[in-house]
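Write out the 3D structure for:
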Amino acid sequence: MPNDYRPDWDIYTCHIEDNPAIIGLDLDLRRFAPLNNKPFAVHISVYLNDPRPDGFPKGTEFEILGEIEDHLVQQLELTLHAHFAGRTISAGVRDFYFYTADPLLHDKFITDAMTRFPGYKYDYGVKEDKNWELYFDFLFPDIQEFQRIQNRKVLRTLKQHGDIPEKERHIDHWIFFSTEADREQYWKTIRSQRFTVEGWPLEKDSELPFGLQISRNDKTDEDSIDITVMYLWELAREMNARYDGWETVIVAQ
């Protein structure tokens, strides 16, 4: 992997074939994939013994699935030089997804890892996936969910520093446009929502050079942030603009 690769694992909820699902994946892979030297996708399906009615594992089985994951990752990284790309859980099945250069003997190596867990049924498969469609088209969240994931990352950082989400504070947002007219129209649309203009940044070499920095006092609980950010994000998308994120201060007392 390139030197600036940094594993960035996160999860989100969705549905797979009408069943509730949780998908976890390494988001930083998006910057480098597809990896030309790893064109084969290997998947392993492990069947839960005692799933909840919604298809998710109970607490004790969740811990065992974590152990299974650790052994599969360790085994396939060592033997196939595979890269662990993501996992799903839905309808009583935990699926693990890897990319490798050569899947030769993958069945043996998977079996070797799973012999530690004789109480679990499993199966596996491999397919050529030069464009990493499994990663981009199946595991990767849509652009709305991706923004929500970014929101949660910031909120986790705030929480780690003792932030009190129920307290309102100054929050800045940035949006970038292709024309000054679009920027002006955007501002006219949102100005009645108590936002204040903090600046008009300019990025001359960008396809969206005309920036708008706005602020408003808001809470930092997840619902409040998602409502505000997704409103600004959706409006920016409608105008072919780019919502470029938000930041705030920590309020710990």
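The two ends are 43 Å apart (CA to CA).
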